[in-house]
């Protein structure tokens, strides 16, 4: 039996139909979201506050590997990462993308608002030009909590076995 939040997980082939059911304005973001932390949760809540619905596209396991984050990444597989994202109150819909960038997913969703974290200047955001072209907004949300999955993993690795 699926738990209620898992209904928010959307196969990419069903994305257009599921997005059509969401209230607008729709906010879109994407990322790996490997080990969810306070920075992620705060960022996603702030993104949702910009609109009526928040669609999150998670990198597929294969696309995470291509990002070069390390041989052992992602720590959590895409299904688990999407489930944890779906469990968040701020998230309306979660999907996965397999390409190197989320551009095709952005074009499918056609969000009113595109957001990324504060380490992404608007001019470098994939899909920013397209969203602006159709009259949407693009935001870079400053980090409120300096957290990073990579930094957390490095801390764990430095502690070593039995620490």
UniProtKB/TrEMBL annotation:
GO molecular function: ATP binding; nucleotidyltransferase activity; phosphotransferase activity, alcohol group as acceptor
Keywords: ATP-binding, Carbohydrate metabolism, Nucleotide-binding, Nucleotidyltransferase, Transferase
Pfam families noted in UniProt: CTP_transf_like (PF01467)
EC number, UniProt record: 2.7.7.70
Domain Cytidyltransferase-like residue range list: 28-122
UniProt KW Hydrolase keyword: no
Top-rank EC class of the record's enzyme: transferase
Domain of life: Bacteria
InterPro entries: Archaeal_FAD_synthase, Cyt_trans-like, RfaE_dom_II, Rossmann-like_a/b/a_fold
GO biological process: carbohydrate metabolic process
Catalyzed reactions: D-glycero-beta-D-manno-heptose 1-phosphate + ATP + H(+) = ADP-D-glycero-beta-D-manno-heptose + diphosphate
NCBIfam families to which the protein is assigned, alphabetical: cyt_tran_rel (TIGR00125), rfaE_dom_II (TIGR02199)
Name of the protein in question: D-glycero-beta-D-manno-heptose 1-phosphate adenylyltransferase
